[in-house]
Input
Amino acid sequence: KLTNETAKAELGRASWKLFHTILARYPETPTTQEQGTLSSYIHLFSQVYPCGQCAEHFQFLLEEFPPQTGSRKTAAMWGCHVHNQVNKRLGKAIYDCGNILKEYDCGCGDKPLADSS
Ligand code: FAD
Output
């Protein structure tokens, strides 16, 4: 059985992976609606995140650093920045955001499934 700390760390790694991958797949030139969707997703994510203490800290971070939804690049850089804020608080190394889009390329192509027919 996992200890609580191990489970919390595994949840964190899985969550960050999805989080950064979503941002790296976000449209390069999003519509107003897509910007609203991403912003809602991030705020809702911060409210349902299963580690309560983490969720609370993340909600404060979102107040200080509101999601940047203007483009794929700004969204991905914002995500990298807020993860680095968490890294800093936990005493972890700061991550280099320079290659963020390449590092989180999911290999899924650039069109959503619904448009690919
Ligand atoms: P993680 O931080 O999980 O990172 C996983 C991998 O992502 C790294 O190995 C690296 O390859 C890459 N990476 C690292 N930094 C970045 C970056 N800035 N941008 C892009 N990629 C990066 N844990 C707590 O104990 N207390 C908390 O309050 C807490 N709050 C959290 C809030 C959120 C929203 C999330 C998703 C997780 C939180 N966690 C918290 C978990 C914590 O952030 C780590 O996920 C966990 O400690 C495991 O750390 P790790 O060293 O394996 O790397």
Remarks:
- The chain has one domain: 16-104.
- The two ends are 45 Å apart (CA to CA).
- Residues 16-104 form a domain with the Four Helix Bundle (Hemerythrin (Met), subunit A) fold (CATH 1.20.120.310).
